[in-house]
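Fold it.
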Amino acid sequence: MSRPSSRTAARATGVLLAVQVVFQAGLAGGTPWGRFAYGGQHEGRLPVRFRRASAVAAAVYAVTAIVVVSEAGPDRLRRPPLGGLAAFTAFGTGLNGISRSRGEQLLWTPYCAVTAVLAWRARPTAHGTRATSVITGGR
């Protein structure tokens, strides 16, 4: 199986972030998915402070998805945030993997891992830089 292009990876990352927007917005709205979030410490509907945090998270994920999918800005400025997103979701993979919530472990660990890989792959190539250019003077 071949690796996806950075454009395909960016679109897939955007879709996964949109799923996260829906999930976080659902939590913020009171959907009883508490066992899949925040360590699974609330079986049903989250307390107000967690619902507020989910509302903020939904907004952040929405903006991030739009930025990733739009491919706005020069490549050199897009690489670091996509690398940061990959690192953030890789960190989330670890946190969900050690969560006390079996739901988080089963759902969000693989989700975050796939998102991390796709976000990393979505980074545009560094145009004009090659390892040989330093050694051979650009040849």
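Confidence is low (pLDDT under 50) at residues 128-134.
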